[in-house]
Amino acid sequence: MLSNMANKPLFLDTTVLFSGLSFQYGISHKILLEHRTQKYTNEFAIKELRKILKEKSHADETAINYSVDIIKEACLIVADPSREETSRVELTDKADKPIVCSAMKLNCILITEDRRLRKEAAKYVETKTPEELISGRQH
Predict the structure, then answer these.
(1) Number of domains in the chain
(2) The pTM is what?
(3) What is the span of the domain harbouring residue 117?
(4) Per residue in 30-88, pLDDT tens?
(5) Dihedral-angle region of residue 117 (phi above 0 means left; psi in -120 to 50 means alpha; beta otherwise)
(6) Residue 105 falls within a domain, yes or no?
């Protein structure tokens, strides 16, 4: 059972999407398929996911499209934030800006497996690892 999930929507970053698809018995998979909590991701994360599935998993286009369809059933995919919105966020990896900005804009908890991103994003948005979300622990 996922604790505190009904309180606030979740924004799933690419690390969680990839793990959720790749490890059917993992925590990210449980979060991805939990239907009682609103989950979001954005077009940027989907684009990153497609790239990772192709490069790291060597998935073909049919498998990639099937994976994205699973994400579309589990999450609401929102448009990427504007350049103006992302310019207000200071992060080491500029590629993380669309993720953090979308989570902020939607007032979501950012769920990520990326420790550096969690640390930097915490000044803008609440962050948790999949394990913290499941256990109800705080970072």
Answers:
(1) 1
(2) 0.90
(3) 14-135
(4) 999 876 789 999 999 999 999 999 998 899 999 999 999 999 999 999 999 999 999 99
(5) alpha
(6) yes
